[in-house]
Write a structure and sequence with these properties.
alpha/beta, 6-stranded mixed beta sheet, about 35% helix
C-alpha cells in the first residue's frame, strides 16, 4: 500500500531524510518514531504530496507521489501535528466544507459528516465555533477531516497531541477500529501509546531508519534473547539449578526476595523458544509455589533510547 525507496529530502545543504526505504502493507498500523528533527514529519509530508522528494521514490496506493500527486491525495487522509483549521467556522459546517473540497458527492456529504462526528466523538461540539473548542476537541476535528472521505491511507502526525487520558483512549480505539480497511502511519512522542496501537514500528534518527520491526522482536534483537520473569516460592539454590538446566535457557538471575523462600527470577531464553509451559510444569512437579510467570522485555521507550544512543555513538 505504501512503498518508499531510497527517499532523500534536502533543504539547501541540510539533509533531513537520507536514503530511507520501507513499505507498509494494506491494513497495517505502523508507528513512526524518532527524536525531534529526525525526519519523521518530512517523510510524512513527502508521502502526502505536501512537498517533493529530492531523490528516491514514494508510492501510495499504487500511485507515485511526484507524478500522480492528485491521485495520491484522493486516497490519503492527513492529520499534521499542527492542525490547520478554520477557527471562525462551526464544527459541522467546517466538516461539510471539507467534504465538498474533497469531492464527496452532495448526496453523500451529510452521511459522511455524521459518520466522522460519531467516530471522533464530536456530538457535543458540532455546532460550536471551532476556535471556541478546547485543544482536545480541535484535535478531534482535525482527525475527523482526515477521515471524512474514507481514505485508503491515513497519515497521522501526533494524533493524540493535547488530549487527556480518556480522550487518548478514545482516539486509540478509533485508530484500531480503522485498521484492516485502512493503512495507517502514526507518528507519536508518546511511546507507550505507539506500543499499544501499532503492530510494527520504524525508528528514524538523523534522517536514517535505524530499526524496523515489532516491539517484541526489537527487544529480542537488542537483548540477544527473550526474557521471562517468574516468582517462585522454594529453595533458591535448587530452583536456580533447575531453571539453568532447561534447554533453551541462556541465563538466570535472582532479582529480589519477596518474602520467606519467595524470590523473583529473570530468565533469558533463546529467541523463538517458548518455555513458559515447561517451566510452569517443572515448578509444580517439585511442589514449589508458582505465584507469577510473565514475559519481560524492554519498553518501547527503552528500545528507542538504546537505538538512537547507539546511532550517536557510531556517528
Amino acid at each position: 500500500m505504501i512503498e518508499v525507496r531510497n527517499l532523500t529530502k534536502k533543504y539547501g545543504n541540510f539533509t533531513a531524510v537520507r536514503d530511507v526505504s520501507f513499505q507498509v502493507e494494506k491494513g497495517e498500523i505502523l508507528g513512526f518514531l524518532g527524536p525531534n528533527a529526525a525526519g519523521k514529519t518530512t517523510t510524512m509530508r513527502v508521502l502526502t504530496c505536501f512537498m517533493p522528494a529530492t531523490a528516491g521514490t514514494a508510492r501510495v496506493a499504487g500511485f507515485d507521489t511526484f507524478n500522480q500527486s492528485l491521485e495520491v491525495r484522493r486516497r490519503v487522509g492527513y492529520l499534521p501535528e499542527n492542525v490547520p483549521l478554520y477557527l471562525d467556522m462551526r464544527v459541522r459546517p467546517y466538516l461539510n466544507f471539507i467534504a465538498r473540497i474533497k469531492d464527496i458527492p452532495s448526496r453523500d456529504r451529510k452521511k459522511a459528516v455524521n459518520r466522522v462526528i460519531e467516530l471522533a466523538a464530536l456530538e457535543d461540539v458540532e455546532n460550536r465555533i471551532v476556535g471556541h473548542c478546547s485543544k482536545g476537541f480541535r484535535q478531534r476535528v482535525g482527525l475527523a477531516q482526515a477521515l471524512i472521505h474514507d481514505p485508503d491511507v491515513l497519515i497521522l502526525d501526533e494524533p493524540t497531541n493535547g488530549l487527556d487520558p480518556k480522550q487518548i483512549n478514545e482516539v486509540r480505539e478509533v485508530i484500531r477500529s480503522l485498521s484492516g480497511d485502512h493503512t495507517i502511519i502514526l507518528s507519536s512522542h508518546i511511546l507507550p501509546e505507539v506500543s499499544k496501537t501499532c503492530e510494527r514500528v520504524l525508528i528514524i534518527d538523523r534522517g536514517r531508519i535505524v530499526a524496523g520491526d515489532t516491539p517484541a522482536n526489537l527487544d529480542a534483537r537488542l537483548r540477544g534473547s527473550q526474557s521471562i520473569s517468574v516468582q517462585i516460592r522454594g529453595p533458591v539454590k535448587e530452583v536456580m539449578d533447575l531453571l539453568k538446566k532447561k534447554d533453551g535457557v541462556v541465563d538466570v538471575k535472582t532479582r529480589s526476595s519477596l518474602g520467606e523462600s519467595l524470590w523473583q527470577y529473570d530468565i533469558d531464553i533463546i529467541p523463538g523458544r517458548d518455555l513458559r509451559s515447561e517451566l510452569a510444569s517443572s515448578v509444580v512437579e517439585n511442589n514449589w509455589d508458582l505465584l507469577e510467570l510473565t514475559t519481560a522485555g524492554m519498553s518501547l521507550e527503552e528500545i528507542f533510547l538504546e537505538l538512537t544512543t547507539q546511532e550517536e555513538e557510531v556517528a
